[in-house]
Model the fold of this input.
Amino acid sequence: MSQRYNRGAVEDFGRWREFSAGMWAWIFHKFTGWVLVGYLFTHIAVLSTATSGAAAYTGTIRTLESLLIVRLLEVGLLAVAVFHILNGVRLLFVDLGVGLTSQDRSFYASLILTGAITVASVPTFLAGAV
Ligand code: HEM
Done:
């Protein structure tokens, strides 16, 4: 007979305190994956202004890049993309059976590397911001 587990109520949001590293990796991967899909639409919208001519496109980029919030969102986008790529490559290795016994450590390494790359990018993204 199959074993039964008590998974608790779905509505019990306090369960996040008991999440394992693997659960956080799963949540972050889902979150970052869908943020990237969302960004794709923004990206296409911005690029589409080029259909009105080079001057219109230059104006769009100049306006966007003059806004501090856009610069900050770009830092966030980099963090999301870098984590998704690093954790995604990690998952592909896990799928191949590589590093099965050190999954927690490789997840923490993805997080630390994402943090380091994101912090290092800040001067570039904020250069010239008002
Ligand atoms: C080098 C780049 C990337 C790598 C290595 C990568 C890797 C992965 C992997 C391995 C999964 C499956 C995770 C699992 O086993 O559950 C995944 C899921 C996903 N990825 Fe990526 N990915 C990359 C880029 C992208 C981009 C550019 C987007 C969006 C435009 C994206 C969106 C998603 C989404 C939506 C999921 C499914 C999330 C879910 O479980 O609901 N990924 N990615």
The chain has four helices and no strands. The two ends are 66 Å apart (CA to CA). Residues 29-30, 33-34, 36-37, 40, 84-85, 88-89, 91-92 surround protoporphyrin IX containing FE (CB under 6 Å). The mean pLDDT is 95.
